[in-house]
TrEMBL record:
Keyword Transmembrane helix on entry: yes
Alphabetical keyword list: Membrane, Transmembrane, Transmembrane helix
One Pfam family linked to the record: RGS
Segments crossing the lipid bilayer: 15-35, 84-102, 146-166, 186-207, 219-238, 250-269
Name recorded for this polypeptide: RGS domain-containing protein
Residue intervals of the RGS domain: 344-473
Keyword hit for Membrane: yes
């Protein structure tokens, strides 16, 4: 997405002005939509803040480039400032590729690590669990927007520092008429190098990415390849030694920049407009209609004591998904469920084949922490029944609060504030002077019920329509 201005010449000036206006309109119209739809996966999981900053930066550069390409639009005394601003914008844009791809790479790594929490040996071994927790904390940060901005700073600071050195020693008259100079050569070579390295990385990890990420990876491939072509055209223009070739190459690069930006912005919006959204649905605490809940949940008829769980103990295997305190009839077989056509989250969890498939599905959806929370609550209840003491309840509940409820926790689940406040108050009451065992057993029920509702609303239909589900019920 690199562009180059040719000062004090209008040979391709009108063409640049036309595409600069089109690019500006695209940004003005689409930026509010991107901000509004920032929780949609095709936007969110591309590091939408950095991506939007890069689009704004390259648009500013295009506007300046178009203005400096028209005779009399920019004063000669203002040219140095325009060159500084254009090169800063270019560096911002180029330094955005790597962070966006790195963030997405670690985002794909996160469910792989979360899945290991279902491993019994890992959960009961303090050293293995501690090592896994550290990896989860690190991976969650690197897969966040904050992690992406850290990668951006690591890229931008040294590259911009070198660019400042060249600009401080630049001959702006040579830059204005297109004569090859060290500052231009550095910026173009830097573009080619950074984008080429980014393209190698995205091809490397994209080859092993789940097919559910196809839409995002396709966009990454198209944007990276077109940007690399643009940067290569610029390099040809800078090193050609011919003024006409130089201007032609930079005009072609200008148009390519517009096309690349269009793909980068319009491709994710396409899935929003046509309702062909990327396969992940982000959990939301926004209010749903009661009718919608009744249609897709079918949960409230199940007692939470029979569908929720507990922290791992040495007597409890992680693969035991039968409802606590229920008889064998509560283990819903696949054939019975298929005939009745009734599938709820508790029934899916109680059926080991469906549970495994649902776990795999949620891992692809980046929502595995919700199933982890339900299983942890289930195991918490078993542990409290085994050792009903204040110390035991406090130790296990603190672990749940730290890992699932606390803000920015490693497996944070999306709970309404009122549920968190109610949970905190219930824990305080249960852990009073004398342990209230019944209250301690049900303290996480409301939170678990909310997570089940969100799983049913956001994932149940899509899971039932997935090949993972079909392969199980067709047996």
């Amino acid at each position: 997405m690199a562009v180059r201005s040719m000062g004090r010449t209008n040979e391709y000036g009108p063409l640049k002005v036309f595409f600069a206006i089109a690019q500006t309109l695209l940004i003005v119209v689409c930026s509010p939509i991107i901000i509004h739809e920032r929780d949609q996966p095709m936007v969110k999981y591309r590091s939408w803040t950095i991506n939007l900053a890069a689009c704004l930066a390259i648009t500013i550069r295009s506007i300046i480039d178009a203005c400096t390409s028209m005779d009399g639009w920019v004063d000669y005394e203002t040219l140095p400032f325009t060159f500084w601003l254009k090169n800063i914008c270019l560096t911002i844009t180029v330094c955005s590729y790597g962070p966006i791809y790195l963030r997405h790479y670690y985002l794909l790594r996160l469910p792989v690590l979360q899945t290991q929490l279902f491993n019994y040996e890992t959960m009961v071994d303090p050293e293995k669990y501690k090592k896994l927790s550290r990896s989860l904390v690190r991976t969650k940060f690197l897969s966040s927007e904050a992690g992406a901005w850290m990668f951006f700073a690591i890229n931008f600071i040294p590259l911009m520092g070198i660019g400042i050195y060249y600009l401080l020693n630049a001959n702006f008259d040579e830059m204005a008429i297109g004569i090859p100079n060290p500052a231009d050569l550095y910026m173009v070579k830097m573009c080619v190098s950074v984008i080429f390295i980014s393209s190698l990385f995205v091809i490397w990890y994209g080859a092993g990415a789940p097919k559910e990420n196809f839409h995002i990876m396709k966009q990454f491939y198209v944007v990276t390849v077109s940007s690399l072509i643009t940067a290569t055209v610029l390099l040809i223009g800078v090193t050609s030694g011919d003024l006409h070739t130089n201007r032609l190459c930079f005009a072609i690069a200008f148009v390519m920049t517009f096309l690349t930006l269009s793909v980068d912005i319009l491709m994710p919006l396409q899935y929003l407009v046509t309702n062909q959204r990327y396969n992940t649905v982000v959990l939301s605490s926004s209010k749903k209609s009661k009718a919608h809940k009744r249609k897709y949940m079918g949960i409230h008829a199940h007692k939470m004591a029979g569908s929720n769980g507990v922290i791992l103990s040495s007597e409890t295997n992680v693969n035991d998904y039968s409802s606590t305190g229920s008889d064998s009839s509560s283990k819903i077989s696949t054939q019975t469920s298929k005939k009745s056509g009734t599938y709820t989250i508790p029934k899916i969890i109680d059926s080991p084949p469906l549970r495994d498939a649902f776990c795999q599905y949620l891992a692809r959806e980046f929502s595995l922490e919700n199933l982890l929370f339900l299983e942890t609550v289930r195991l918490y209840k078993e542990k409290v029944r085994q050792v009903p003491t204040i110390a035991n309840v406090k130790q296990i509940s603190d672990k749940i609060m730290t890992e699932f409820i606390a803000p920015n926790s490693v497996n944070e689940v999306n709970l309404p504030k009122k549920d968190v406040n109610k949970l905190t108050a219930a824990l305080h009451t249960a852990l009073g002077n004398a342990l209230n065992v019944e209250l301690a057993l049900t303290v996480f029920d409301d939170a678990a019920r909310h997570i089940e509702e969100m799983l049913a609303l956001n994932h149940l239909r899509k899971f039932q329509a997935s090949p993972l589900f079909e392969n199980i019920v067709s047996v």
